[in-house]
Structure prediction request, 367 residues.
Amino acid sequence: MKILYDHKIFTTQKYGGISRYFFELIKRFDGVENRCEVATLFSDNAYYNDKLNPKLNRILPNSQFKGKKRITSYLNTRKSMSEVRCGNFDVFHPTYYDDYFLDSIKGKPFVVTFYDMIHEKFSSQFSSLEADSRLFENKRLMLENSSKIISISETTKQDIIDLFDADPSKIDVVYLGNSLQNFDIGNQRLVNEEYILFVGNREIYKNFHFFITTVAESLIDNDLKLVCAGGGDFTFSENELFRTLKIENRVIFKRIFDDNVLANYYSNALFFCFPSLYEGFGIPVLESFACGCPALLSNGGALPEVGGNAAMYFDPTNVQSLRNAVDELINNQSLRQSLEEKGSSRLNKFSWDKTYKDHLEVYKTVV
Prediction:
């Protein structure tokens, strides 16, 4: 069986959960019984690059000239279109909700992964999500024309059914995995002070403003730092907020250079907090479990589905709910230890190997 993946997510993402997910699938194909091809010529992606595929190139890697992304996207789209038209595959799996291939697929089966329904559920609250109106229409087209839909959680599957009146039998749930395995955190802490950890993007529905405003007093009272790993440099408005809250010296931004660095941040944190209003899955939850880091999670979306009884939860719209949970975790060492142990056990439910095998089963149903 041969699977064709397109270029989309490897063109648009350098880092990110979706490109990591497809990278983990691609590298597991044995090339004999099951093969895959990625219709991509150029990639700056941190995971899928010339280390995995020596045929990949980068357009002027040391230059960030105007129009570079547009040129890369154009050339990669042509490559994907060419491979789709050629039809030398058993199943096509586009990596995002882009309908560019529909007129060229010629009746071949294709499968699409739905990651979440964030735009549909929160567009009325966030103008930047409302502006991306094309996404909803693309998702509808994917649902109508695909052979199967893969949902990364039961929560997301139910959202698809509710919002699109979709046929449940067309949607298969396949959980994601965790890439923080066999890591080496070394003997040195990358942050010497005691800290709470926040990982990744801080914008829109990630609820960072609510989170930092709520925990500021706890940081001061307990002489703690907040480490924000990844997600880009702090913005001007974020720095202004830190100054207003009098915690400008307590909030630290750290870049993530590789998995060992990320594992070091998790492993040495007092606990990890994920205050998002909604998640379709939540890979950082599994990362925290893998590193023995207690997890404090919002009860939004699929986070309770992933965390199970191995995490502590709070209402991401309720100040007192978050404040009480943070203070309890700070002051209760036995609770942190219990969550650490439960997290290690919970992790057994998820793996990229299982994700890969489950994908093969879905592919087989449409061939």
In short: Residues 270 and 330 are 7 Å apart (CA to CA). The chain has 15 helices and twelve strands.
